[in-house]
Design a protein that fits this description.
The complex is a heterodimer of chains A (766) and B (387). With 766 residues, chain A is an alpha+beta fold. Chain A is built from 21 helices and 29 strands. The chains are: A alpha+beta (766), B mainly alpha (387).
């Protein structure tokens, strides 16, 4: 039947069409019903481009508003990661860019891949953020930008973006406090990324730049753009825009006038200590190495033992190395650090100068040419004021005196007869070295002019401080040792807990990184040191009476940072109120305007947090002890001393301030160095103004520079001179640009008028 | 299955020659015309939505399409006015003209040094390939309709194949594989209903594929079409040449898929209404605009209208007074089905991208006029089914 056959064939046609339409329907259901959201997500991701906008970093001011750390807008040439993904394209583009950017191709390649042409195995982490365009060269000039923009078809994917660069207007002043910035290190990468940082960023690496990174950084903003097929921007999705938030401005308590003066005085004094004449002249000279009276003057007292066992004499005069030092000036009213110098210093602009690794190692060597580690004396990138690991010498004596009085071991009026030596009272005489035993039982005072230990006669706390009687304090050391021994098992060392009241042995908590906590020895501390192999072999792993005796005069295992010493003296100056030291005066809300170039308009800024109100962390009990100590420290500077059989003894700081009417109290200290060689003595001085007109504490510490009164004393005196007469200080000026050809971390910066340093103190150790 | 829908008397045969007193003008299939008109109006809306953001004059393409529609309507009325026997009598002449035009357009293309698909007559672009859909349909239907045997004899099959093959080959040379595929589909549809043996159907398929293969090897197929095919096979390719094609197709799928069930709303499609996310969307991918703006519901409505359209044509094929009418309807049915399927399938990513427009909705004068003319033929068959 023809009809039915055609009908059936039309049915085939209908079936085919139903199948095709069903196929379309199924596919549509799958796409629009099932997969719709997945596609929506894809579309949202691919249709937008996010451009992150950097926050402006907070600026750093000094106490008077001078802009220590500023931001400069710079132009940075970048390239789209995708464009240089293929090695061939990358090579071609970088070869073309190398000339205009004045950068070797391989350096550009290393921006993309840090392991490019590096020795294998290379595990350098990717430096730059894949979400941001790859920066090829920072701080290019307008001409280069114009050159590249005019030839944009030759440089696909290459763009120029505005970035901020850190500039330090007054560098190298206060570099150790301000610190510097650097790339995020591998160890910190995850932490920073978690806080919303970008891989490319430079972050604080030292100083306040590091410790206040959180405040200074600000928050990234972003702009979301809709893009078309070619990736060019169609419009901005303004509802998704996030403006960057600038960081908080930080005002330091550092006053750049005093800071500059302190740095200059420190450097000038250190240099003059190195250059002392070899022969005796005008009462000041390089340390003398006298002839040995026992060997009938044929050899010198100090000698080296050579590897083959022979002895070699040092010369008669050996100059001080005077390699390094530190000055801290505190405001006693609020604990603010007014000046904090550390020598050798550096110019923190080097870290922003884009110098090569070779140049960096030349400027800041960590190894000698022969590959050994450099002498810690020479290290530059440490802030000795908070990282210095220093014996206090006699500057510890006021605090030992307070500890003894507070513990009831002595009273202010107890008199001790100082006859030049102190013999331990509790050791049986037959065990003493001088009788053939094992124990050192006899401790001597420093020698006076006649070559024998000084005999200061009857001294109490006040006069013992004035003349720095070691014997008096040796006795206190022994008293403390046995008082501690009498305590129940497990009680802390009695001297230690008392010294901790002044802040020793713990970090001060100042806003500076890498602070050292100092060390007050007790059984546990010494045990740890012995186990670490730091001490001489054969040392007992517990504190002995001899150790405690050494602590009492600031030698041996007792150590502190200059800032800790300053806080302790400041505590004496305030009548027992220990304050939290701070290098920050205030935190300002972002974008404080400028008053004039290099000076911020603090009046129109908004203070978010002020540090002007002191934070008292401890109050010391008095009972007359502080009065006796204060009188003693005043007598150190103004006398009188004591008189005994071997004649009159002037106090240690007397001649220093003879020509000055600045009213201060203080204490000298001489920390014995390696081998007890006199040229290894480090010089310390702590002082505070005796009147309300001078509410400041100054501590100076000059390594391997001689007696306390000779090196640290003059520097301290200079600071007080400047406080009472600011005109002696040179004006602070905005620095010239950094000389990139220089081989010095920082140029020499001596005092213009060094008169305050030349007080010609006579030589008396203590 | 009751066939009251087909209003066919039992035993009266497909070619019902019993005349009916009803005049042709009173036998227009209004449902068919309505479906076709609604699709055209939807087309106007879709063209506006897909093009208004891309040109300074937002109505540029809509206005032109309106003019085309008017022209197409007039063409349809002209086609309807003459009995399809009248058209059959002129089919040889029209076929000759078509072959001539196809040769001419290739020669012009060769002279001008580029592919030529159309004669540029000022504002009008005449595409002989579109014209061929009408004329080749007529001649094949006429030739096969002359034979009333139940099965398609071999010689008729061969001659029918030649009748389709010559213009199809010329169109492949242009090169316009899409239009050629429409002609071949049409021939296959008619031959199927005319009673071609299964091996004939295989043969026509094989010959078509061989022709296309030969064209590719001979270099007649331009690179762009090959690119599209390669892009279809390698959707994730990173090859630079393929990016534009992949991009166009990928965005079409994304537009459609993100429409979801109920769509983003008229003129609210972020992709359709963007600057240039889907190049020539108004002509090549109008269905993606439907999908994004009106969702699955909108797509179902459009496909439903097409289904209605096809159903009415299929019905007329049954009702036709003679085999010629049946074959005409079957040819139109096959062409429509193929173009609808191919366009939507490429939009949803299950077929490679070709330039075949979506009937009645895509922008484009030649396509609109051709389909209205074809619908005119179908109406013609319906109008004169009682004569």
């Amino acid at each position: 039947m023809a009809v039915d056959k055609r009908s059936a064939r039309l049915g085939v046609l209908a079936t085919v069409s139903l199948i095709l339409i069903g196929l379309l329907g199924a596919r549509l259901w799958f796409l629009q019903g099932v997969q719709s959201e997945a596609y929506q997500a894809k579309v949202t991701a691919s249709k937008t481009a996010v451009v992150y906008t950097p926050p402006e970093r907070g600026r750093i001011f000094d106490a008077k508003g001078r802009v220590l750390a500023d931001n400069k807008r710079i132009l940075t040439v970048t390239v789209d990661w995708a464009v240089v993904k293929k090695p061939k394209n990358r090579q071609e583009l970088f070869e073309r860019l190398s000339g205009p950017l004045d950068t070797p191709v391989d350096d550009l390649m290393r921006r993309y891949d840090p392991c490019h042409l590096m020795p294998k195995p290379c595990r350098e982490a990717q430096l730059y953020d894949r979400l941001l365009p790859l920066p090829l060269k920072e701080d290019v000039d307008e001409d280069t930008v114009a050159f590249i923009k005019e030839r944009s078809e030759d440089y696909p994917g290459v763009d120029v973006v505005v970035q901020y660069k850190r500039v330090y207007l007054y560098a190298p002043l206060a570099s150790h406090v301000i610190g510097y910035m650097g790339s995020i290190t591998k160890e910190n990468l995850d932490t920073y990324l978690a806080q919303g940082y970008k891989r490319n960023e430079r972050v604080g690496q030292f100083g306040v730049e590091l410790s206040l990174e959180r405040e200074l950084h600000g928050r990234w903003g972003k702009r979301v753009y809709e893009v078309d097929a070619s990736g060019s921007i169609v419009r901005e999705l303004t509802d998704q825009r996030v403006e960057p938030v600038a960081g908080f401005d930080v005002q330091l308590s550092i006053d750049l006038d005093y800071q500059q003066f302190a740095e200059q005085a420190l450097e000038t004094e250190l240099r003059s200590r190195r250059d002392l004449p070899f022969d005796e002249r005008a009462g000041d000279r390089a340390p003398r190495n006298p002839r040995d009276p026992i060997t009938n003057f044929t050899t010198r007292v100090f000698f080296k033992t050579l590897p083959d066992g022979t002895k070699q004499d040092y010369p008669e005069y050996v100059n001080h190395k005077a390699p390094a030092g530190s000055v801290v000036m505190l405001d006693n009213r609020n604990g603010q650090v007014v000046a904090m110098a550390s020598y050798p210093t550096f110019d923190n602009r080097w870290m922003e100068a884009g110098i090569t690794g070779t140049k960096y190692k030349e400027l800041f060597p960590s190894k000698n040419p022969d590959g050994t580690k450099i002498d810690p004396d020479q290290s530059i990138l440490v802030n000795r004021a908070v990282q210095g690991n220093y014996n206090l010498g006699s500057t510890i004596k006021p605090f030992v005196a307070w500890s003894a009085m507070h513990s009831g071991l002595i009273t202010p009026n107890d008199v001790y007869l100082d006859q030049g030596t102190y013999t331990l009272s509790q050791i049986p005489p037959e065990d003493c070295q001088n009788n053939g035993g094992n124990f050192k039982c006899v401790f001597k005072n420093a020698t006076c002019g006649n070559g024998r230990p000084c005999q200061y006669g009857p001294v109490n706390v006040e006069s013992a401080l004035a003349v720095s009687s070691d014997a008096f304090f040796y006795r206190l050391g022994e008293l403390f040792y046995y008082a501690s021994r009498k305590q129940p098992e497990g009680d802390p060392n009695l001297l230690k807990v008392n010294l901790q009241r002044f802040g020793f042995g713990n970090k001060t908590g100042v806003q500076l990184p890498y602070e050292w906590s100092g060390r007050i020895p007790d059984d546990a501390t010494k045990k740890a040191l012995v186990e670490a192999g730091v001490l001489a072999p054969g040392e007992e792993p517990r504190l002995l009476v001899g150790d405690e005796v050494q602590v009492a005069i600031g030698q041996g295992l007792m150590a502190a940072t200059p800032l800790q010493i300053a806080v302790a003296y400041s505590t004496l100056a305030t009548g027992g109120f220990r304050q939290q030291p701070t290098v920050v005066k205030a935190i300002y809300s972002p974008l404080t305007p400028d008053l004039s170039p290099g000076v911020a308009d603090l009046e129109s800024g908004t203070i978010v947090k002020s540090y002007d109100k002191p934070t008292i962390v401890d109050q010391l009990e008095d009972n007359g002890s502080l009065g006796a100590i204060g009188s003693g420290l005043h007598r150190v500077i103004r006398g009188p001393g004591t008189v005994y059989k071997d004649g009159p003894h002037r106090p240690t700081g007397f001649t220093l301030f003879k020509d000055s009417d600045v009213d201060v109290s203080g204490k000298t200290g001489t920390a014995q160095g390696a081998g007890n060689l006199p040229w290894n003595d480090s010089s310390a001085f702590g002082a505070y103004g005796s009147t309300d007109a001078l509410p400041y504490t100054v501590v100076a510490y000059l390594e391997k520079s001689g007696y306390g009164a000779k090196a640290a004393g003059p520097v301290t005196k200079c600071m007080f001179t400047a406080l009472s007469d600011p005109t002696v200080m040179a004006p602070v000026l905005i620095s010239d640009t950094l000389d990139l050809g220089s081989t010095l971390p920082a140029p020499s910066n001596p005092l213009a008028k060094a008169a305050c340093l030349t007080g010609i103190p006579d030589g008396q150790k203590g | 299955m009751t066939m009251t829908f087909l209003q066919r008397k039992p035993d009266s045969g497909l070619g019902n020659i019993r005349s009916s007193p009803s005049a042709p003008s009173r036998n227009i299939d209004w449902v068919l015309l309505l479906a076709q008109s609604v699709l055209s109006v939807i087309g106007l809306a879709v063209i506006y939505s897909a093009s208004h953001t891309k040109f300074t004059d937002p109505f540029l393409f809509v206005t032109r399409q309106e003019v085309f529609l008017i022209g197409a309507f007039i063409t349809m009325i002209i086609v309807m006015s003459f009995d399809y026997d009248w058209w059959k009598d002129r089919s040889r002449f029209l076929y000759g003209v078509t072959i001539m035009l196809l040769v001419l357009v290739i020669l012009i293309g060769a002279v001008s040094g580029g592919a030529a698909l159309s004669f540029d007559l000022g504002p009008l672009k005449l595409q002989p390939a579109e014209f061929a859909k009408f004329t080749v349909l007529l001649i094949v239907a006429a030739y096969l309709g002359d034979d009333r045997s139940d099965e398609l004899p071999y010689h008729r099959f061969i001659i029918g194949l030649v009748l389709v093959g010559v213009p199809a080959a010329l169109i492949i040379i242009q090169p316009d594989l899409g239009s050629a595929s429409v002609l071949i589909t049409m021939a296959m549809g008619i031959m199927l209903v005319a009673g071609a043996k299964a091996r004939y159907m295989f043969m026509i398929t094989a010959v078509s594929l061989a022709t296309v293969g030969a064209a590719v090897v001979a270099g007649f197929v331009n690179d762009y079409q090959l690119l599209r095919f390669r892009a279809f096979l390698h959707q994730d390719s990173r090859e630079k040449d393929l990016q534009d094609v992949i991009y166009q197709g990928r965005n079409a799928i994304r537009a459609l898929a993100t429409g979801g069930i109920d769509g983003k709303g008229w003129l609210q499609g972020p992709i359709t209404n963007a600057k240039n996310d889907i190049p020539v969307q108004w002509a090549d991918f109008p269905f993606s605009a439907v999908g994004e703006q009106f969702g699955l519901i909108g797509c179902a409505v459009v496909i439903g209208l097409y289904a209605l359209l096809l159903l009415r044509i299929w019905r007329i094929a049954h009702l036709s007074r003679d085999l010629l009418g049946t074959y005409i309807c079957v040819g139109v049915f096959a062409m429509l089905l193929w173009q609808i399927f191919q366009n939507i399938a490429m939009t949803v990513g299950i077929m490679p991208i070709t330039g075949l427009p979506l009937p009645f909705i895509s922008y484009g004068g030649s396509g609109i006029v051709t389909f209205f003319a074809l619908m005119g033929l179908v109406q013609n068959v319906h109008m004169r089914r009682y004569r």
